[in-house]
Backbone:
């Protein structure tokens, strides 16, 4: 199968998790080919050579046009989405942009032969907007089978907070003030560092980073304990517990908010700790995890076993295989109107112009990049 995969940024973390890693494994297994294009670099000639188009989180007029062209050319179309973007939370950095493009997102979901979702709850929410849906769950990061990291008694615990958004609760911040110091050190990746530093908490700050680099950082922390705060909302409930999957795989025990998706994934006291939104529960869970080294070891082992049995890359690859075959089957049973006569001629002329336009933009970007490199030498 010849697959064309498109996204706003084909090198983003979410594209790596949802598409690049599993599709590379799937293509290798079955001898398929996968071509990658950003929405703005995708040309009509790319669409003409594809048997199946995957659109990731497409919310723009151009994306809908790509879907329409692929359908007219006989290709199957899959719209991949991992968040409830139709009800995006206000604290998300792209909230205003996504809300402004919502009509195009809804149209794109309806155009596709199949919509793939990362969780059963998200799949149910999107079902009324889609012709058909399929579940393609997220997977834990795995590169090699390493022993669980040691948890040493009598040494400081490194509390790890990581997020691409500014979401933090006052209750967690207040609880951290009670424990960060001699018994615990705070390591923060991403925007939450600003609020925690402003609250007067001493911390080790890191920028957002690729998944592999983040995993390496988490593995390097002595006596690591991950903290995952999350609000209670329909948007949050539809998210995947992929953070916990990664922490569990590398052996970092986790304290998370007792809301979906973590309420669905973590068994309290067995594969992690769950807390409500109060300062008292955050503080109690932190003290338990910091003081009880045996509990950290036990929970780390149980969480890894759980994730390896239910959230492996092989399971995600198998789900993608099933979904793509279903999309192709659905496309074959669907009739799509194709422009004829003058409309087809003008469409072909427009496609030629679009191909030249994309090629010119690529050439210009390469020229500017070479100038910047030369100026920096």
Residues:
């Amino acid at each position: 199968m010849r697959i064309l995969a498109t996204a706003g940024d084909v090198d983003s973390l979410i594209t790596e998790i949802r598409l690049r890693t599993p599709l590379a494994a799937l293509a290798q297994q079955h001898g398929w080919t996968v071509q990658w294009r950003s929405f703005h670099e995708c040309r009509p000639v790319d669409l003409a050579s594809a048997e199946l188009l995957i659109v990731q989180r497409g919310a723009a007029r151009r994306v809908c046009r790509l879907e329409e062209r692929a359908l007219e050319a006989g290709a199957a179309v899959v719209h991949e989405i991992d968040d409830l973007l139709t009800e995006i939370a206000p604290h998300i950095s792209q909230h205003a942009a996504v809300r402004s493009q919502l009509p195009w997102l809804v149209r794109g979901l309806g155009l596709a032969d199949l919509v793939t979702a990362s969780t059963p709850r998200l799949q149910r929410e999107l079902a009324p907007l889609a012709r058909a849906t399929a579940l393609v769950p997220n997977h834990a990061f795995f590169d090699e089978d390493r022993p669980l990291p040691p948890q040493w008694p009598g040494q400081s615990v490194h509390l790890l907070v990581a997020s691409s958004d500014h979401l933090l609760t006052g209750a967690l911040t207040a609880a951290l003030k009670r424990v960060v110091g001699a018994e615990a050190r705070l390591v923060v990746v991403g925007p939450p560092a600003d609020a925690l530093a402003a609250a007067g908490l001493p911390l080790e700050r890191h920028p957002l980073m690729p998944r592999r680099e983040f995993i390496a950082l988490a593995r390097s922390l002595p006596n690591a304990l991950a903290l995952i705060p999350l609000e209670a909302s329909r948007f949050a409930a539809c998210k995947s517990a992929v953070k916990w999957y990664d922490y569990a795989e590398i052996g970092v025990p986790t304290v998370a908010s007792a809301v979906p998706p973590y309420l669905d994934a973590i068994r309290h006291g067995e594969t992690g700790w769950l807390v409500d939104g109060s300062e008292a529960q955050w503080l109690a869970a932190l003290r338990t995890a910091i003081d009880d080294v045996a509990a950290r070891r036990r929970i780390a082992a149980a969480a890894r076993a759980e994730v390896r049995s239910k959230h492996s890359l092989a399971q995600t690859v198998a789900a993608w295989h099933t979904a793509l075959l279903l999309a192709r089957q659905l496309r074959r049973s669907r009739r799509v109107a194709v422009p004829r006569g003058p409309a087809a001629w003008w469409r072909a002329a427009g496609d030629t112009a679009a191909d030249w336009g994309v090629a010119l933009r690529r050439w210009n970007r390469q020229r500017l990049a070479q100038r910047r490199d030369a100026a920096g030498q």
The first strand starts at residue 2 and ends at 7. The mean pLDDT is 91. The chain has two domains: 2-139+314-338, 157-311. The chain is about 50% helix and 15% strand.
